[in-house]
UniProtKB/TrEMBL annotation:
This is Chorismate synthase. Its cofactor is FMNH2. Its EC number is 4.2.3.5. It holds the Pfam family Chorismate_synt. Belongs to the chorismate synthase family. Reduced FMN (FMNH(2)). The keyword Transport does not apply.
Length: 393
């Protein structure tokens, strides 16, 4: 199975990830990963930190001559701003300075509950790690997972589908066309008309010293039937995807397929009818079974059913406001207006890239769980044999 850990603080020297379980023989490069890192930093409404950092990955282990070798892969993203924080974030006792402690917790952040849990009197010990800056290295991990999935014809694409209550219209476009349109959009959306209204909304909340949230959608195409399992709670693919997406900073809700709309409709308007067409197999499909609708979002009973996997995530507005909210000093208990750290007005397009990344990792994990193998060639043999089996089912 694939697993990974990240380490590092927002203003520390670097962010690091170690990925275990990537089969040998997968081609990856720093240049390819950097494309995804740049996508995460872009988007209309980003703030000052994006002007400081230009994220670049370093591959430190597990890859030789452009291919994975089966050992753990270590990825590093250096924080350029570290040069200004070397004493404030120093690991050495000699640099301790009680005068720079942060005791004023910001509403909507992990500051106060984290300080209470870990017995800190300086919330910087919490905010540095809880910062969404950590997602930079998760995007790097997701880029490796995306390369693995691409070897099996599986693509993962993220879009902004709602922002400030303004919804993008898909209008029956194919997934390939959606990707083309979103790639040209500053808001990673496929609806140019909605994008203009979204931008106007971002401008209005910026003027008011406020922030904007939204909804992102990730579509997985090419996933075969049979990823995940119904037999245990922690093997269900939708459960694993939901946990991964909910682990992202500022994500407050997840739905798959119709999601919450399933509770508002009768069953006849929810469940996807099943059809069979043998000619689909002769055209190269893995199975003759198919559905004309995809309300289930490609997962039934915790198992992928061969349709597109569709998952959406709700991102709350960023809690650091330029018109600050009220809070209480942790030590003096005095009321104050929350401090303002560098912040975005809207980071929903970046969230689309991050959600893509964690979804790619979980789908890759499920693929390896199903087909196994220590090398890409071995996984390919197992995968091809399974696809042949599906065609004969």
């Amino acid at each position: 199975m694939l697993r990974y850990l990240t380490a590092g603080e927002s203003h520390g020297p670097q962010l690091t990830a170690i990925i275990e379980g990537i089969p040998a023989g997968l081609k990856i490069s720093e240049e390819t990963i950097n494309v995804d890192l740049a996508r995460r930093q872009g988007g209309y409404g980003r703030g000052g930190r994006m002007l400081i950092e230009k994220d670049q990955v370093q591959i430190l282990s597990g890859v030789r001559w452009g291919e994975t070798i089966g050992s753990p892969v270590t990825l590093c993203v250096v924080n350029r701003d570290w040069v200004n924080w070397q004493e404030k974030m120093s690991p050495h006792e000699r640099h301790r300075d009680e005068k720079i402690r942060v005791t004023r917790s910001r509403p909507g952040h992990a500051d106060l509950p984290g300080a209470m849990k870990y017995n800190h009197r300086d919330v910087r010990n919490i905010l540095e790690r809880s910062s969404a800056r950590e997602t930079a290295v998760r995007v790097a991990v997701g880029s490796v997972a995306r390369a693995f999935l691409a070897a099996f014809g599986i693509a993962v694409s993220g879009f902004v589908v709602e922002l400030g209550g303004i919804k993008a219209e898909r209008r029956g476009l194919s997934s390939d066309r959606l990707r083309e349109l979103a790639a040209k959009s500053e808001l990673a959306t496929y609806d140019p008309e909605a994008e203009e209204r979204m931008k106007a909304f971002i401008d209005s909340v910026k003027e008011a010293g406020d922030t904007a949230g939204g909804v992102v959608e990730v579509v997985v195409t090419g996933a075969p039937v049979g990823l995940g399992s119904h037999v245990q709670w922690d093997r269900k693919l939708d459960a694993r995807l939901a946990m991964a997406v909910m682990s992202i900073q500022a994500i407050k809700g997840v739905e798959i397929g119709l999601g919450f709309d399933t509770a508002r409709r009768p069953g006849s308007q929810v469940h996807d009818e099943i059809y069979f067409d043998s000619s689909r197999i002769t055209r190269g499909e893995a199975s003759g079974f198919f559905r004309k609708t995809n309300n289930a979002g490609g997962i039934e009973g915790g198992i992928s059913n061969g349709e597109e996997i569709i998952i959406r995530a709700a991102m709350k507005p960023i809690p650091t406001l330029y018109k600050p909210l009220s809070s209480v000093d942790m030590l003096t208990k005095e009321t104050f207006e929350a401090t303002v750290e560098r912040s975005d007005v809207c980071a929903v397009p970046a969230a689309a890239v991050v959600v893509e990344s964690v979804v790619a990792l979980e789908v890759a994990n499920a693929l390896l769980e199903k087909f196994g193998g220590d090398s890409l060639a071995e996984v390919r043999r197992n995968y091809d044999a399974y696809i042949d089996y599906l065609r004969s089912f």
